[in-house]
Write a structure and sequence with these properties.
The chain is α/β, with parallel strands linked by helices. The chain is built from four helices and 15 strands.
Amino acid sequence: MRWLLRWVFRLTVLGVGAVLLTALSAFVTVRVVTLRKSIRVPDFRGRTLEQAIEMAERLQLRLDVRSSGAFSETVPPQRIAEQDPPPGTWVKPGRSVEVALSLGPARVQVPDLSGRSLRGIRLTLQTLGLELGQVLYLQTAGAPDTILAQDPPPGRWVPGGTAVHVVVNRGRPDTYVMPDVIGRPLEAVVDFFKQKGYRLGYVEARVYPGLPPGIVIGQVPKGGYPLQRHDTIQLTVSRAP
């Protein structure tokens, strides 16, 4: 009786194995047939449109060119920068692959900086992805610390990170005609120049017959000389013998 049970068990195992083997063989066959009918999408990136079309036709694929294009830091303009489906994807013959031509590096339109302060344009340029380049200064009429000129000019499209060079107005020098203060009391002269914001330098005292102490008897620069804020005024005053 035992030998009969063993014989039945072996037949059952062999039958199940045959069924599994048949199913596996059928799956592999279907998979192979499916793969034979599928096409692996190549890498079109970096190629010209003509090269990509020729490659797609050989593989029985179609190319659709996206009208908007795509910015790229690495792919030159007018070459394919992006594609969908990505390279290596298995697709059926006749499948369409969408590609985008490179527009080159991302472009930024240079803003108009004229009349704005140097401090204010720093944040503007940083927000747009631009850099502040060389800063030159010029003394002329107009508000100090404002932009007089720039390069590149406003409205030009440039790659991100481009340096924008500017010319900044220092303002017209604050000049004053040096008055003739000889013969005036030193205290009054000192108060006058302090109110004007000019600097007094060395005050020399000399004996001057006929004058009381503290009277201005000499000045540098002389009366009528154009005086600027950074100039230093030197005086000579009388003193007692």
